[in-house]
Amino acid sequence: MRIQATFLTLLAASLPLSAQAQDLSGMAGALKVHSTRERTFVGAISYTQPVGNYNALSLSYINEGHPDDHHRDGMAGQVWLRTKNVAQGLMLGAGVGRYFFFDTARTDEAPHNFDNDHGWASIVSLQARWQFDNRWYAQAQLNRIKPDGKDNTTHLLIGAGYRYDGVPGAKLHLQNWAYDDTLTLSTGHTIVNSLRSESSRPFTLEYRRAAGKYVDWTVSALDEGSTVLAHRRGAAAQLWLIRSLNEKVEFGMGAGPYVAWDGRDTQGHDTRLTGLLSAVARYHVNRHWLAQVAWNRVVTDYHRDADVLLVGVGRKF
């Protein structure tokens, strides 16, 4: 599963390198599979941190659509060389990096005719951005993804983004970040990463504490709900990299181990050690209450990966 390597990628892409303007963007477009010439949709969400006037680091979630017999998505960390940052006008860039993917692939051997494959790929990108004078920008991007032993894909994406000027990125919403203890109760929607995408209702209880200006750690109790393929519950511990986008909103990425019991486990194991990769957006209503939206990917070694989408309310103390 290489969770440790994935987290290092997240770390490299999210370090608090400067107080320069970080930005968030969303894009969508068309994807081509080279081996079969199939075409499908593609979507991406990216966080970018400039490093000086000509370089940047980015972290992206990419969903590669639904070509025949494959549902592939993943996380990409990239280093960018760009033309000089401009307050308004055109900026061009080229990026290279690594892409950790999750592929739900049809097979005749698995008990339910699918596998959850995990692996690494190289990603190369070209980008054109037009910066408006109100922090918004329009963006077009071309990606080429080349996994080892898997289908190569090309993406053409168009979208928009927002630049957060002058925010240092530390936990600005707190007078004393060292005491950001939060208890959050969440529910939402669990989707098993199968070809039928079976779903259920999850519930989680999370305890979060700030460990630094840019780092949180959490302990969570999870019940992913019950489907025909999985009925999993357990406890997870995660380390998070957190960036403040303004005095109310935080964005973060986390990773860690998840010890779970699955009542539908096809191998008959009582407990399994899995991995949990997560992204969170937190809105601080006031000094005592916050709202939270989170995406979690459960990474397994027995073909029962799942997405757990959560909306919650937290109490700070």
UniProtKB/TrEMBL annotation:
Keywords: Signal. It comes from the Bacteria. The keyword Signal applies. It comes from Janthinobacterium rivuli. The lineage of its organism: Bacteria, Pseudomonadati, Pseudomonadota, Betaproteobacteria, Burkholderiales. This is Outer membrane protein (Porin). Residues 1-21 form the signal peptide.
